[in-house]
Amino acid sequence: MKNLVVIGSGVMGRGIAYVSAVGGFKTTLVDISQEQLANAEKDINSIFEKGLARNKITFTEMEESKSRLQYSISLAQNVKEADLVIEAVPEIMDIKKNIFEVIDQHAPEDCCFATNTSTMSPTEIGSYTKRPEKVIAMHFFNPVHKMPLVEIIRGLETSDETAAVIKRAAEQMGKETVVINEFPGFVTSRISALVGNEAFYMLQEGVGTPEEIDKAIKLGLNYPMGPFELGDLVGLDTRLNNLKYLHSKLGEKYRPAPLLEQYVKAGRLGRKSGRGVYDYSAKEEVIQ
Ligand SMILES: NC(=O)c1ccc[n+]([C@@H]2O[C@H](COP(=O)([O-])OP(=O)(O)OC[C@H]3O[C@@H](n4cnc5c(N)ncnc54)[C@H](O)[C@@H]3O)[C@@H](O)[C@H]2O)c1
Asked: Is 102:71 a contact under the CB 8 Å cutoff?
């Protein structure tokens, strides 16, 4: 496998493109927004520079990896020679459906398709293509270049061969893997959404300040990040979309906290918008 296309150059897509290029894949990052692509390139270059400064990557590795990376707004054209396409567009089924229908038309027959969805069904996404046996979920974590796991989720029709190909690709990107069967929210999103939502209910109830709740969870339960710090990193809109989906599939315990809905309505989306639960406007934030 050589050619990889990542669709969506947001929080996740840019990280996936980085680990893919460093892992030796010729990688094209595709978005509909030229501005997002320019931001993605800036962020990716900043990850390279920091990696170099911290001796995580040599100068030659950096230059070679950069030469394997391209940025484009043309989807159909770029998937024509792809061996693997990884989709990382917003967690909205209609957008994903449209993309999988397009790539199914233009990618080679033996090309595998992965979705970076946090919650949605790879079986359903596979059903929008004529190759459901080649469709799987490849769930990366944020920030992608630092988090060691890729959670691989098989849909009903996913073949053993596809699962093996994806596991190898993730390992080539330097990741550990777990391969699980589909159920809404998988393992990680189901737990993470529940904890993050409960923290918002606590904030709404006046149990404590965000700082106090985050500190209690970090130091008392040994979590590396507090639920609000993590929510701001993930994006509160992304978190809300996940919760809405899980609420529709798994019931009442996933009902989004009204305060979370209000934050999203106010445009407080987290680090990416400069303000979420916490305020980031004072310093320029890039992926560390
Ligand atoms: N944010 C996280 O921490 C996180 C973690 C794991 C998985 N995910 C999942 O990854 C996916 C992407 O999330 P994100 O946080 O990176 O979103 P994001 O909003 O940061 O980025 C999405 C990108 O997709 C682009 N896009 C929208 N429609 C497109 C189209 N038709 N073609 C090409 N590009 C298009 C947007 O311009 C944007 O750049 C979601 O499914 C999300 O659930 C997110």
From this structure: no
Give the domains, in start order, of the chain with CATH numbers.
3-181 (3.40.50.720), 188-273 (1.10.1040.10)
Cα–Cα distance, 284 to 282 (Å, whole number): 7
Greatest alpha-carbon span in the chain: 55
Q: What are 96-130's pLDDT values in tens digits?
A: 999 999 999 999 999 999 999 988 999 999 999 99
Which strands make up the sheet holding 112-115, listed edge to edge?
Answer: 69-72, 26-30, 3-7, 84-87, 112-115, 135-139, 149-154, 176-181
Instruction: Find all residues with CB under 8 Å of 89, minimum gap 6, and list them.
Output: 7, 8, 10, 13, 95, 96, 99
**Across 157-209, where does the E strand assignment appear?**
176-181
Q: How far apart are CA 4 and CA 22, in angstroms?
A: 12
Instruction: Enter the DSSP assignment of 270.
Output: B
- DSSP one-letter string for 100-116: HHHHHHHS-TT-EEEE-
Q: How far is the CA of 13 from the centre of ligand 1 (A)?
A: 7
pLDDT in tens, 233-263: 999 999 999 999 999 999 999 999 999 999 9
pLDDT at 187 over 60: yes
* Average pLDDT score over residue span 132-151: 97
Ligand 1 contacts (CB < 6 A) are: 7-13, 30-33, 36, 88-91, 95, 99, 116-118, 140-142, 234-235, 238
